[in-house]
Amino acid sequence: MSASFTKSTARNIFYGGAVxxxxxxxxxxxxxxxALPKRxxxxxxxxxxxxxxxxxxxxxCIGCHTLLGEGxxxxxxxxxxxxxxxxxxxxxxxxxxxxxxxGRRQMPQFHLNDxxxxxxxxxxxxxxxxDTNHWPPNIEG
Amino acid sequence: xxxxxxxTLVPPGDDASANVQLKYRxxxxxxxxFIAAIxxxxxxxxxGLVMGLQYVIGDFLFPEIPFNVARMVHTNLLIVWLxxxxxxxxxxxxxxxxxxxxxxPKLALVAFWxxxxxxxxxIVGYLAVPYxxxxxxTGNDILPTMGREFLEQPTITKVGIVVVALTFLYNxxxxxxxxxxxxxxxVMMLGLWGLAIFFLFxxxxxxxxxxxxxxxxxxxxxxxxxxxxxxxxxxxxxxxxKVTGVDREVIEKWLYLIIAxxxxxxxxxxxxxxxxxxxxxYWQVWGSVFSALEPVPFFMMxxxxxxMVNRRRRDHPNKAAVLWALGxxxxxxxxxxxxxxxxxxxxxxxxxxxxxxTASHGHMAFYGAYAMVVITMISYAMPLLRGREANGxxxxxxxxxxFWLMTVSMVFITLFLTAAGILQVxxxxxxxxxxxFMVAQEKIxxxxxxxxxxxxxxxxxxxxxIVSFFVTGKSRAPR
Amino acid sequence: xASPVEEKRVPGDLAMWCFILAELAVFGVFFLAYxxxxxxxxxxxxxxxxxxxxxxxxFNTLLLIAGSATAAAAVRAFSANRQRAGRWLxxxxxxxxxxxxxxxxxxxxxxxxxxITLSTDTFWMFYLSLTFFHFLHVLxxxxxxAAVWWMAGDGRYRPGSLxxxxxxxxxxxxxxxxxxxxxxxxxxxx
Lengths: 141, 479, 190
Known about the structure:
Chain A is mainly alpha-helical. Chain A has helices at residues 7-35, 47-58, 81-85, 87-95, 114-128; strands at residues 2-4, 66-67, 70-71. The longest helix of chain A has 29 residues, at 7-35. At the A-B interface, α1, α2, β2 and β3 of A face α2, α3, α5, α8 and α9 of B. Chain B: Belongs to the heme-copper respiratory oxidase family.
C-alpha cells in the first residue's frame, strides 16, 4: 500500500480546519450569547453585586476557594454557599477569621466593614442563582 | 544516505568538545531568557512545596504567606517562566530558521530586563502587601482585571506583558519576513501571535460572572489547548530536525497535521469548560464530543517524536536533549491527553469538576507538555549558546538523572492527587450523606503527605538539573 | 475508484485521510451521544422526530448520493484524461451540493421561525447540532470541490497525477456517508 502525503495538503487542512472550527466556535458563542439572559441571573445584577464582585476579586478569594467549580481546591466551593450557610453565617464567618486553630487551614482577616460584607453576600447570592445545569451535585459543593 | 539538503543541517560534529559557533550571533540573546526561566522555575517549585505543606499543616507560614498568595506565586511563576522559555526559544530558533540575524538583538535584551523586573516587582507585590492593597496601589479600579485565577497580575503588569510581547513579536516577525520562511517558523509565529491576541481577553472583566468566566477561558483554554500547542509543536519539530537529521520536509508535514488535529479538536473542546458555569446545556454535548478527541493530537505527537528519533540519520551527541524530546511526547500525552480525557466527559465531570482530579491533570499536563518542551529546547540550545555542541558525558548523565527524578516524581504527584480526588468525589459528591468539604479533606490528608514527599523528590531533581549546568569533565558524549 | 496506474494505492492524500478519520470520529461520538440521549428520553425524541419532514430529507439524501457518483465519475474521467467530462462532472457534484444547501436552509428557516433553538430541548439540540455541523461540512466540501474544479482548468489532473481530485472526492464521499447515517438515525429510525 502506498499513498502520497504532501506538505501542501497538510498545510491546507491545518488552515482550513482552524478557520472552519473557529468560525463554528464563534457561531456557538453567538448562540450562547443569545441564550444567556435566561440563565445568567442578569436581572439581579445590581450595583451592590458589582461592588461585591470587586471585593471578591481584590481579596483574591479564588486563590483558595472555587466558584462554580473554578479556582483553587484548598477551601470550600462558594457558588452555593449562600444556600448552604445563609447570609448571617457568611458574614460572621468572615469577621471571625482567622480561627487560629493550630494545624487547621487558615483564612486571612480582610477587615471588611458591614457595607462591604453586605456587598459580598449580595454577590454570592447572585452567583448562587445562576443556572448551572444542577451543579454542584449536592449542597456540600 | 545523507542528501545535500540534510548535509547543510548536520554539523560535522563527531567531536562534541569542538568549539562550536552559533550560526547567528544574535541567537545569544536567548541565553538570559533561558537562565531566567530556570530561576523562576525554582521559585515556582519552592512555593509549590509551601502549598503542599499547607494542605496538611494548614497554618504553616500563616499569616505571612497565606495559601492564596503562595498559589498565586506558584501559578504566576509557572506562566512567566514558560513565557520566558517560549521567548528564548523564539529568539533562538527564528534566526536559525530565517537564516539571518535577529532584527534587533538590543530590543530583545531591553525587553528581557523590562519583563524580568516587571515580573519580579509583581511577585514582590504579591508577597509584600495584602492583595487588596496591591490592587489599590496599581489602580485596579480604573480597569479592574485582577483577582481571577491565573490572571491575578495587576492591570499594569498585564499591560507590560502585552508591550513585551509586542516588541518580541515585532522583532521576530521582521526577522521572518526578511528571511527564509519555513513551516517551523511560521507555526511558531502563529502560536506566539495567537498567545498575544488571546491574552487581550484578560482585559475584559464584565460584572456578569457567566460572561466573565466564558471569556476567561478564551485566555486560559485557547492558550494551553490551542495556540501554546502550536508553539510546543514548532519547538519540538525544531529540536527533532536538529538532533535526528530527518528530512525537514517529513517533519514539517507531520507538524502541520498534528497542529491541524489540535485546533480541530481543541477549539470546540473549549466547551468542556462550559458545562457548569451558567452556559447553555448543549455545551455538555459539544464539549464532550470534541474534547474526547483532544488526546488524538497528543498521541500523534508521541508517535511523531519516537518515529523521527527511530528514523534518525545521525546520532547527535546531545543525548539529554533527545531524552527530553521523547519525554515531552510521552508525558504530554499522559498528562494532557489521558488525564484530560479521564474527566472531560460531562457525566464524569459533573462529579469531578473542581476537585483534586482537576489538580492532578493540571500538574501533569503543564509539566509534560510545556515545562518539558521548554526544557527540551534549553537542553538542546544551552550547550550551543555556551560554545559546544553538547555537554560532556558527566553533565549529561546528571541531566538525565534530573529528567528521571522530576518526571517520575511528577507521575507520583499526579497519581497521589488522583487518589485524593477519587476519594474526595466519593465522600463529598456521591452517596446519600455527603461529607462537608473540610471533613473530606482531612480524611485524604495521607495522600497529600505522599504528594508532598513526591514534591520534595521533584525539587531534588530540579536541583540536580541546575547542577548539571556546572558539571565539567570529559566533554565526550555518552555512548 | 482504484487507479489503473498502481495496484493497492490509497487514493488521494494521506493527510486528507487523517482529517476524514478525525471527522468520522467526531461524528461517530456525536451519533453515540445521540443514541444515549435518545434512550434516556424516547418520548421526547419521538415527538420531535414526528415533526421532521421526511420527503425533503430523502430528496437531499438522493442528491448527495448522486453527487458522490458524479464525483467518482469525475475521478474516472480524469484518469482517462477526459478533461472536459471531468470538469463537468465536478460541476455536477458542486450543483448537487448547492441544491442540498438550499433545501437545508429552507428547513433551518422553518425551525428558526418556529422559535426552535439549541436550548429548546435535548432532541432539537441534537437535531440542530448534527444537521448544522454536517451542513458546514457540505459547505467546506463545496469549497474544496470548487478549488479542484478551478485548478482542473489547466489540465493538471491526468492519469498518474490525480491526487488533488481524488482527495476532494474522498472528502465528498465522507460528507455523503455521514449524511446517510445521520438521515437514518435522526429522520428515519423512530
